[in-house]
Structure formats: C-alpha cells, structure tokens
Design brief:
- By secondary structure, the chain is mainly beta.
- It is built from 6 helices and 30 strands.
- The strands form 8 sheets. A 5-stranded mixed beta sheet has the order 1-27-26-25-24, with no helix packed on it.
- β29 and β30 form a beta hairpin.
- α2 runs antiparallel to α3 and α3 packs antiparallel against α4.
Length: 478
Amino acid sequence: MAALDTFPELPRPGEISFCERDGRICSLPANEVDAPSACNLPSYPEINIGRELFHHASTNIREDRRTLMVPVNETLFKRVTRTFFEEGLVEALNEATSSGSDQYNPLIGSMARYLLVLVKFGNRIKFFLKPHLEEQGVDSIGKYTQTRDWSKSAIRCITWHPNCFKIAIAASDDSIRVYGDEPSIVPILKSGLQKSISSLAWRPFASGELAVGCQSGALVWNIDPNSLITRPLSQAVQLRYENHFPVTSVEWSPNGCLLATASINDTDVLVWDVEQNRKVPLRRVGLPCALLKWSPTGSRLCSTTVGNVFRVWQTTKWTPDRWTINHGTIQSVVWSHTGSHLLFVTTEECFLYCLGFVEDEVFTATLIPKSALPIADLSKFTTGQVEVGGRPQALAWCSGSEYLAVTFKDTSAIAIFNTVINRSQLNITPSCFITGLGIESPSCICFQQNLGRRPSRKIKTVLTIGWSSGRIQYFPFV
C-alpha cells in the first residue's frame, strides 16, 4: 500500500469529506495464521472463561428473571406496584390491563387501557423526534460496545494494565476476574450494582484501581495488590449522576488524574475527579455519547455519539472540533502512540479511515487536512475456504503503532496490518489474518501495553484475543 503522502484540498471546517477512489485502496491480507498453532507463552495465565462462569448468559433478561420467582397469590395493586418499580410504567399498565384484572376492579382495567394508549402515543411522538431514544437499557448496550455479539458472548471485555502484568476480564455473569503474577490467586469482583458490563479501564500508575462501565453507571474498584483472598472485602465505589446510565465507555486520562465516562442516555461527557467524587460535564446539545478514547499524550479526547457526529476535544481548553460522517455511526476508534493519527471505522462502511493531527502549527495547514482519508478497504472476500473482511467490529493498535488488528461483525478472521508512522505520514500494509478453532469468532481483542514479562526479547507486542468459546488466546508478534 502506498504511503499517505498526498492529501485532498481542505473542505469546510467541522466536516469530514470522504475521498472516493476506484477500486480497493488496499486488499486484506492473504496469509492465514492459525492462532492455536502460534507461539505459546507459558508465562501467561491459561484462561477459559466459559468453564468458570457462575451461570450462562440469557438472551432474554426479563424472562430469565421472572422464571426465578416463585408464584404467589398477589392482589392486583401489589402486582402493578411491583411491576412498576421493577420494569417501569408501560409494563405496569400492561399488568393492570392483563386478563383477569377486570374481575378485581373493572374501573382500574379501563383506566389502565386508556393511559396505556396515551403513553404509547406519546412515545411514538418522542421516538419520531428523537429516534435514538427508542433503543435504551440493556438491549441497546450491545449495539455500542466493541464486543461482538455482546449479549451472547461469554467474554464482555478484556483490558491489560498499562504499567504491570495484570489483565482484567469481564464475563457475562457480571463478574470480573483479575489475572496477574500469581496464577493461584485470581480476584473475582462482583457486586449487586455491577450488571451488564460494557467497558473496563485500569487506572495508570495505580496497581489495583479498575473502572467499570455498566448498566447502573460507573464503578471504581480498589484491589489490594498484596491481598491473598480471591473475593475482595471492599465494595466498588459507584459514580452515578442523574440520567448518566447505562455507561458504555470509561477512560482514564494517561496520567491517571481524570476519569471520563459516556452514556447512551446522556448528551454530556462527564469528567470525574474520583478522589473527591466531583464531576464536570462537557455539555453539548445533540445526541447522546457512546464511546470515548483518550489520546496517549492526553492532549485530546475523542467522543462519539449514537448518530453520525463525533468530537475531538482539546483537553488544554476543553474545546471540541465537531466532525460528521456520511452514513451510520462510529463503531470503533484508536489513537496512534504519538496522538498524531486517529483511526476509525463506521457501522455502515467497509473502510478504515484516518484523521491526522499535528501539534506544530507550521505543518497543520499544509500537510494535515481537515478531512478523514480512507486508507484500507475492508470489503469481504474469500481466500481458500475462509471469508475475511466485511463490516468492522473493533480496532486495536499496539502501543508502538506497529501492528493494527481489525475484527468484523460477520466473519471470524482477524485482519492484521503493519503500520509505520513518519511524522505526518501513515503507511499501512496488509500482513496476515488470524483464525480460531473450528467455528470460533473473536468476541474482543486488545494489545498488551506493558511487556515487562515478555518471554523473549524478540517479541515486540502481544495481541490478546477473547474467542466466542470463552478461550483467551495470546498472539505474539516477533
């Protein structure tokens, strides 16, 4: 693939223009690497979450909860009240209008049916004006996470600690397991507030502080690194503010001082000072936020929305640059190690896009355009008997910006690209693709940020893959 050494002329500020080119910008890799046959890393923990789950995930959470209840004889008033607090107004009205309610009080049944019609009519108007509100709660979390088939996957999230050998894995049973230097001690983090985990983030320069984004908001665990027990005695601290839940993305600043959270039910990004439980909202009118990504230098924060808008915040003055895409929403974003390039993929297009930033103002006007460039065509194709490519699911870029991994929504191979950054230029070339065992598909991926325990000096980085079977795979790059 040719280097990005030419750029189109600048479009209007605040917009993204997509370059249209005939043919593929670059083809996906043609060399297959079987992940199980890759180099083994004996010093890394052997993990299979599928064997350790407390229970299997249910695709219908409401029905699963109801089957656990013992049937009892309740009055109509008690049933409606309980349903209201557990499932909301609409379900309470449905309960009041259900068969058998009229024999208790026909007037209540008639009034409930009338109110239900009014509520449904009001919801239709609200969803017409704001269509993003139609999908809320647990069912909508999976749409905005980086995990493939989030609602069915045994593994919800994986993340490596940036400073030490420690990996956290969130499972579908709402538990988090932490694996570190001592293989016999695996802390398990579980709380009644910790439901439907969507994101994890280790606090930099703190060995045991983990932020969790979930249905009830954001939680922060403080794990004693010297503890020899597997169930920490301390409970998580909840960070909750008004309607800022569920939280779909949590991100620590690179210096570990601030925690940014985003919720698909809130248009504001919240920046927390966790020690003092203080927050500052980054207020903007528009659509709710879905995904956050802090640049490694800490100078910028990218925030995406549930629509076609995303923003890049300058963290020195907290002023945003607003960008739009033509179709769909932003699916995944990653920063280069210098913060000079932002790569992203969308939900509707099979292209990898690049947005360039340069701190030196001398080069900004001449070399870095105010537009995103398509740098790789990820369209689906078949090589041998393996399908590769299609609509992208998640991106992962190693800490040295040498290797880029891409997973897809409809195919099971992971595409690997070699990347080289030379100031304002980004060169990207296809390398290989990785497949799992049998019908396994990659649920989530991430690169290990700290290689303090690398088994060989030849290993540059390690890609960690959470497969749909619950198996964790370590893929080293040499």
